[in-house]
Design brief:
single chain, mainly alpha, 52% helix, binds protoporphyrin IX containing FE, Globin-like_sf, Globin/Proto, Protoglobin-domain-containing protein, Globin-sensor_dom
């Protein structure tokens, strides 16, 4: 059979609207022609942090109720943060690919550093020092003012600094830190599970079931935003 010339193929069918022939509830509308569709500039998503954050917040519906429930949960889980951080480091020390990154010298730390992987322990001086930053990040996640651009700028800098690019002024004088995105994402997933499990285990007189559901959602959202603020510096969009 000889092929049909392209110009004879009719596309009329594409413009037929059959939605009024469908039962109610199954009627569809094309999102492209929907007047409520927001116009998002991919260029601004890349170049403007506030634009990116607005888009993400809208998409995952992150708002004041999320912030309120995070602030309510913060004092209830605050005492377990040091243990969460200890356990995260124990996890990172389970694998050579993640452990070896800690052989490098931290900004501001001038104490002794072992040169061999097997000599590096979880209680070595540099690790104790490093955990302070991680605890501070975890506390910020639960207590930050998410209406402030400074919060997002901090979370974005946390992402940037793991890619080998300098973002914090206090880290200007040290060798760049390079951590694969894979391990940052895995760590975020790990922290998310631990935090959510802790929330679910709270007594119901501390946090009602409804509040627990809200808190689980808020933690997922904020971890996912932090994840985006890592990923965007590794992935070419
Ligand atoms: C949950 C994911 C992670 C978060 C939220 C996170 C957060 C942070 C923060 C807040 C700092 C200090 C920033 C500052 O100087 O103010 C930091 C530094 C650092 N992170 Fe991460 N990190 C994550 C994953 C990882 C992973 C997977 C590794 C390695 C396997 C890693 C290795 C380091 C190292 C070596 C430093 C350098 C500290 C210094 O030189 O001062 N991080 N991270």
């Amino acid at each position: 059979m000889s092929p049909v010339p392209v110009e004879t193929i009719t596309t009329d069918i594409a413009s037929v609207d059959i939605s009024d022939q469908l039962p109610e509830g199954q009627r569809t509308s094309c999102p492209v022609s929907n007047p409520t569709t927001q116009e998002i500039s991919p260029e601004l998503l890349r170049t403007s942090l506030p634009d990116r954050i607005n888009y993400i917040k809208d998409f995952i519906m992150f708002g004041t109720p999320d912030q309120e429930i995070l602030h309510k949960v913060a004092p209830l889980v605050n005492d377990m943060i040091p243990q969460v951080v200890d356990d995260l480091y124990a996890k990172l020390f389970e694998f050579d690919v993640t452990k070896q990154i800690f052989l490098k010298r931290n900004e501001g730390f001038d104490g002794p550093i072992p040169s061999k992987l097997e000599d590096l322990t979880l209680d070595s001086a540099q690790l104790v020092y490093r955990k302070i930053f991680m605890k501070s990040w975890a506390r910020r996640v639960l207590t930050s003012d998410y209406s402030s651009g400074k919060t997002w700028a901090y979370m974005d800098k946390v992402g940037i600094m793991h890619t080998g690019v300098k973002s914090f002024r206090h880290r200007n004088h040290v060798a760049p830190l390079v951590v694969p995105y894979r391990d940052c994402a895995l760590s975020l997933g790990w922290v998310q599970t631990v935090l959510q499990t802790a929330i679910l285990k709270l007594d119901s007189d501390e946090l009602s079931n409804e509040e627990k559901i809200a808190a689980i959602g808020a933690v997922s959202k904020v971890i996912w935003i932090q994840n985006d603020l890592f990923a965007r510096h590794y992935i070419d969009e």
